[in-house]
Structures are given as C-alpha cells and as structure tokens.
Amino acid sequence: MTKLFILGITGYVGGDTVYAFTQAHPEWEMTALVRSTDKGAAVAKEYPAIKLVYGDLDNGDLLADESSKADIVLQLADADNLGTLPADTHVYDDWDGRVDLYARTPPNPYHKPADLAVTHAGQRVDGAVRCALVTPPAIYGTGRGPCHRHSMLGHAQVRIILTEGAGCLLGDGGNIWNVLHVSDVGALLILLVEAAVQGGGKADWDHDAYYLCEAGEMKQREMVEPMAKEAARMGLIASPELKTITRERANEIVPYGEILMGSTSRGRSIRARRRLGWEPKGRSWAEELPDLIETVAREMGLWKSHAQKAAGR
Description:
This protein is of the alpha/beta class. It has a single domain (about 80-300), classed as NAD(P)-binding Rossmann-like Domain (Rossmann fold). It has helices at about 10-25, 35-45, 60-70, 100-105, 110-125, 150-165, 180-195, 220-235, 245-255, 255-260, 270-275, 290-300, 305-310, and strands spanning about 5, 30-35, 50-55, 70-75, 90-95, 135, 140, 165-170, 175-180, 210, 215-220, 240-245, 265-270. Strands 3-2-1-4 form a 4-stranded parallel sheet, sandwiched between helices. A 3-stranded mixed sheet has the order 7-9-11. A two-stranded parallel sheet has the order 5-13. Helix 1 (about 10-25) crosses helix 7 (about 180-195) and helix 6 packs across helix 8. It is globular, with a radius of gyration of 20 Å. The model is unreliable at about 80-85 (pLDDT under 50). InterPro entries: NAD(P)-bd_dom_sf, NAD(P)-dependent_oxidoreduct. One of its GO terms (molecular function) is aldehyde dehydrogenase (NAD+) activity.
C-alpha cells in the first residue's frame, strides 16, 4: 500500500489537494501533520481515515521520523518569505528556461532557498530520494479542504475593493500574473504522485523536476474589473468604477498589499504538459467571484442575509 506523509493539509492548496487524492485514490494510506487539536478535529471530521500527528515545521525529529515511514512526502505547507524585490518581467519556462529558474536573481527570491534544498536532496543521498517541485501561480477558486478555502491573493483584492468602495489598482493595473484554479494544482500533483508510485513513470525528477503550472495570464486590471462589477451587482459597493491607490494604502488594508496588487509573475508550464499530459480544466476567474466576494463580505460584517434585507436592516 502506498503511504503518504502530508504537510499543509489545513491550508488552501493542501486541503484541496488532499480532497482530490481521497477521491482519486482512497486506497492510499495518508498521515498528515497538524498544529493544533482544533485543526486536527476539522481534518478528522472530513477524513477519519487519515492518521494525524501533531507538531509544526520546526519539529525536525518528528518530520524525519514520519517521513521515514512514508513512500512519498508532500510538502504543501506555507513556504513564503516575502520581502521587497525589484520587478522581474522575465517570462520563465520549466523546459528550456529551467536553468534560469535555479539561477534567477536576486539571490533570495521568495522560495529559492527551499527550492535548492529540495533539488539537492536527491544528490546528497545518491538518488535514494527522488524530488520534484511544483510551483503554482496566482491560484483562485473555492477550495474543498477542511479549513482555508480561498487564496490570499483573491481574498486581499476583495478586501481592498470593499474597504475602498471601488475597484483598486496600483498604477495602470498593467502588471501580469499567471493564474490557475486550485483544483488544477491537485490534478497535477495526483499525476506526479502516480508517476512516483510507478517508480518514476514518465515524470522528470530531481534537478530536472521543476514543474510550473498555469492556465494563462491576466493583467491586474483584468482581475479587478470583474471583481468590482460583481461587488457592485451584489450591492456591496456603489459602482464598479476603478481607481488608483498608493502602495502605502494597499499595505494598510492588507499585509503585502503592494506585492499582491503590483508585482508581476510570468511563466509557461511546459514540463507538466509534455511529461504528464496535464491540462488545466478548472472554472474561470469570473465564475469563482460570487462565492469569494460573499465570503470576504461576511468576514468584514458587510453581508446581509435575505431576511435582513427583507426587514430593511
């Protein structure tokens, strides 16, 4: 029986991925790391067959012990290290441009230390461990996990819109992000794990195993315009007009607001398509907006139920 050790099951991507795994391969034996009994209870309610161990990413001995018992380890937990970086407008790919991904400058982009640790792991143990990196873009869509069900980017954009009462841009909103539905990340990970179970399959591993995943690009303006229209349709803002705000104001409303609203991240997913036959199939950005906007409005105390509206409250 294939044994998986999963880190990040309570997160947005991790939760949705585990849901996809349980649907596609209920025969896999899964163990998951959780930080607290509250989180553990939420996971156990949805997935009673998953074994839980309690700790965090700083519990090195625990992680080593559980990893040694597993055939495959999935690190789906948060690995961000946000900081101030100069703009990078280069369009990377994971095939001909793979070397650029490892050598990219500056020397400390968000995930590079973790990326290098993973890609070097197999080399340090003479191939006894085979590794792969999956790098998603701006992820959207309602997740199917037990805890966090919306992305940081979409959540932040809606919060800024509802706070300012308008669709908000930094500059002209021309900065570009690749986008992908959260379910498509899990679909790629299933294909990769299935290849691993087969002894490697057609997948690339170790230094060649850098898998970008995306379903095209969107400018910031193209993301914000339908958000503002939907928020106005739902009666949460007066009109769908767009306006420009400062970086400082964006940061006041949400952490890292200027990065979430003003940065550019572009790539091409070639390896997953060629090696694994992966193709994104998730719903569009616009189709996912009503649920996202309602969720954020409820959190902000702005959502009125049908009964409240009928009563004029």
